[in-house]
Amino acid sequence: NTVENYRDIRLQTPSDGVLLITLQRPEVLNALRSALLAELAAALTQAAGDEAVRCVVLSGDRRAFAAGADIRELAELDAIGVLKDRRPQYWQAIRHFPKPLLAAVNGYALGGGCELAMHADIIIAGADARFGQPEIRLGTLPGAGGTQRLVRSVGKSLAMKMVLSGEPIDAQTALAAGLVAEVTVPELTLERTLELARSLAARPPLALRLAKECVLKSYELPLEGALDAERKAFALLAASADRREGIAAFLDKRQPNFLGA
Ligand code: CO8
């Protein structure tokens, strides 16, 4: 069930409430050229406003989630080109996507590909996944949040090792470090991620949105301010019909039906 045809990504709604976005430049290991990021940003902006979409899964293929920025494209950018580059705007749209965003990662997640995976709220990795920031080998450094998100995901020492050496880590190391939530056999990575996405899609959308917002606040705010934001979000949800439905369904011993209100 294809929703809309883009060139560098494919959109599918495999089941209720879940949108699957597949990167499709397999000939270059899904290298993230600017046009791909523009499509991804547009698709997520549209999905943000579409009530039928409750959760999004981002995937590559068996060989690669994404092997980074498109190096051929990068080679053509001089300083003014970088200054005028629209990519930061595309990353911003991805960063501000308000619904759960899951990444199903098999194979290479390198450079911008690792950074894209880290934009997801939850990463599920196949056992053959490789996460790395090889930019140093090109004489540059991670430019889409890698130096910051990696520290928050895996801690300083491992982040430094990855960023300064360019050496990737395997899925088990990523799991132990907290970069990924689960490791599966590669054949089941997408299936398992979609299964988790379907379960999230059945949860109350407003609570999902505010819970995601609150967790992400831990990146931005001192603890006292973030706890205050959490308390206010908690209070706000007391006004939602879905909270009444959730509690009533529990007391009635039935499945809840959440409407996003
Ligand atoms: N960009 C463009 N093409 C790529 C990329 C890439 N990142 N990665 C792979 N390809 C292409 C190869 O050139 C090759 O094409 P062709 O068949 O025409 O020669 C094809 O994909 C298959 O790749 P390989 O033959 O190299 O496959 P291998 O299995 O031998 O190796 C690797 C796989 C190890 C993943 C290898 O391809 C590799 O090292 N790729 C580059 C990884 C990398 O350095 N990524 C970081 C890119 S820089 C970055 O992401 C910076 C982000 C900062 C953003 C700043 C915005 C302003």
Automatic annotation (TrEMBL):
Keywords: Lyase. Pfam families: ECH_1 (PF00378). InterPro entries: ClpP/crotonase-like_dom_sf (IPR029045), Enoyl-CoA_hyd/isom_CS (IPR018376), Enoyl-CoA_hydra/iso (IPR001753), Enoyl-CoA_hydra_C (IPR014748). GO terms for biological process: fatty acid beta-oxidation. It comes from the Bacteria. One of its GO terms (molecular function) is hydro-lyase activity. Belongs to the enoyl-CoA hydratase/isomerase family. This is Short chain enoyl-CoA hydratase. It comes from Plasticicumulans acidivorans. The lineage of its organism: Bacteria, Pseudomonadati, Pseudomonadota, Gammaproteobacteria, Candidatus Competibacteraceae.
